[in-house]
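Quiz preparation item.
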């Protein structure tokens, strides 16, 4: 099928490349000339494992090309909208201006009966709004197919997704021919696009556009909820002498709970979860659903609280203040296996430490080039060994494999003081302690012995 993908960032570039790998003829359109030029050369403009190979295959087979000219989308019958929907500068709501301008730009190039499907994450009601933008083109079909890929595993997540969601006008009842049961309209077009995935047994759920929009928002809100829940509990663990890693491992063994997104630490960042929970909050508020709005507010504040908790713990480990201390931060990206620094918890913490007077060196295997210009207070060093030299405190803030594999003995020979704050609870604390390191984590610093306050009243039964 001839397909256009409008917006070739972290989502769109991967979507375009995976569609080409499924045998479709794809043109990716973006307004960013540098990005398009790089993609056209078969080089991903960001670090995403497996993407370079897919781009090169697509270009070698002639099935994948990129352009800055929206007129090049005219050859396609199917168009995927993948532009950004960042947080509005003045509120919690999503900024839909890129979506509106991309749809307006596409409008004059739509063939008769074309299908336009959005993949960007949007507030409920966006499809209805865009139908207005499409205006006098009742022949054009519009639907929503939210995306659930994660950066760092985006190629695999696209080729083997957990599920496909199709939001179509009229929902499930309108998506299939009453007598034959065959899909029609947007559902039929999406089935044709994803035929190899459906053949492999990937489940697809067909629903109304409003439901599809909310499935995506609610999914990210739930993931964020799980993370903030365990992080709130981690604070209780610290206050009571329990260990959150052992706690979450045991909780996760219950299949009704599961252990994924139950890893306590510095919390979530990135270009999606933070802005999506704020957008969800704004949606709930505008629909008068206070419970969801309050819930999202709490999830957000617990998450941001983890950053200050880490800064406070760093000060404790430096004897009360970080001012004048030499600190090394391992990790700058918002999670491992990506160079994306959007709302990176690691950089936020590093910058707060520098603002408090510490001399902070940040190292990262991939994200240094993205970060150094935006954080003038921080010193960047791509080489972890050099970054560790003379440190009085080491913070692990993004758990790249390279840092998980660090030898405590070698690291110990580089630093001035063997003090480690593992804010991702990712390292083997015992192995580091055996090399003379003082190790603290978030919710994992139970020092053995009782934390029962000595002045607490003795229970009557004791
Ligand atoms: N990054 C991710 O892992 C995922 C992102 N999403 C959603 O996908 C959407 C895009 O996110 P990202 O790819 O991360 O953002 P991004 O910022 O990396 O990419 C957006 C791209 O759209 C381009 N663009 C803006 N206006 C345009 C226009 N009028 N015509 C053509 N191109 C235009 C930009 O130049 C940029 O390259 C967001 O709604 C996000 O929430 C959904 C699932 C996963
Ligand atoms: O809408 C999106 O853009 C995407 O957002 C997330 O994907 P992503 O942000 O790429 O990365 P995740 O692996 O979900 O991690 C998000 C953040 O949560 C943190 N995290 C994750 C898991 C955990 O147990 N604890 C934790 O703190 C990570 O360090 C990271 O900062 C969702 O997982 C995807 O399903 C969704 O498609």
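Solution:
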């Amino acid at each position: 099928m001839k397909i256009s993908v409008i917006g070739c960032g972290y989502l769109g570039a991967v979507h375009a490349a995976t569609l080409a790998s499924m045998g479709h003829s794809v043109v990716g359109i973006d307004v960013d000339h540098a990005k398009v030029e790089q993609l056209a050369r078969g080089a991903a403009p960001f670090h995403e494992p497996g993407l370079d190979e897919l781009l090169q295959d697509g270009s070698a087979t002639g099935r994948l090309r990129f352009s800055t000219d929206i007129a090049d989308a005219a050859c396609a019958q199917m168009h995927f909208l993948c532009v950004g929907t960042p947080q509005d500068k003045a509120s919690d709501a999503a900024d839909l201006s890129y979506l509106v301008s991309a749809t307006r730009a596409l409008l004059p190039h739509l063939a008769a009966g074309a299908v336009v499907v959005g993949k960007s994450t949007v507030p409920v009601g966006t499809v209805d709004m865009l139908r207005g933008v499409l205006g006098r083109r009742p022949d054009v079909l519009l639907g929503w197919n939210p995306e659930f890929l994660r950066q760092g595993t985006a190629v695999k997540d696209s080729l083997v997704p957990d599920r496909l969601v199709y939001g179509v006008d009229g929902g499930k009842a309108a998506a299939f021919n009453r007598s034959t049961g065959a899909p029609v309209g947007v559902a039929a077009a999406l089935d044709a696009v994803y035929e190899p995935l459906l053949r492999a047994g990937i489940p697809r759920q067909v629903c109304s556009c409003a439901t599809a929009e909310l499935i995506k928002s609610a999914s990210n809100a739930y993931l964020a909820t799980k993370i903030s829940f365990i992080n709130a509990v981690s604070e209780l663990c610290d206050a009571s002498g329990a260990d959150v890693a052992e706690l979450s491992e045991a909780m996760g063994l219950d299949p009704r709970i599961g252990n994924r997104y139950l890893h306590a630490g510095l919390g979530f960042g990135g270009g999606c979860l933070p802005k999506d929970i704020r957008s969800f909050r704004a949606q709930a508020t505008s629909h008068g659903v206070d419970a969801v709005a309050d819930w999202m507010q709490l999830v957000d504040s617990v998450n941001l609280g983890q950053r200050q908790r880490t800064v406070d713990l760093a000060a404790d480990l430096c004897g009360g203040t970080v001012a004048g201390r030499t600190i090394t931060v391992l990790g700058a990206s918002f999670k491992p296996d990506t160079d994306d620094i959007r709302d990176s918890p690691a950089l936020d913490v590093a910058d707060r430490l520098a603002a408090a007077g510490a001399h902070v060196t940040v190292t990262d295997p991939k994200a240094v080039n993205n970060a150094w210009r935006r954080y003038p207070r921080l010193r960047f060093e791509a080489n972890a060994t050099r970054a560790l030299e003379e440190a009085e405190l080491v913070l692990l803030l993004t758990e790249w494999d390279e840092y998980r594999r660090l030898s405590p003995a070698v690291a110990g020979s580089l630093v001035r003081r063997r003090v480690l704050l593992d804010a991702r609870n990712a390292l083997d604390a015992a192995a580091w302690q055996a090399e003379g390191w003082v190790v603290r984590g978030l919710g994992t610093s139970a020092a053995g012995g009782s934390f029962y306050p000595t002045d607490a009243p003795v229970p009557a039964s004791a």
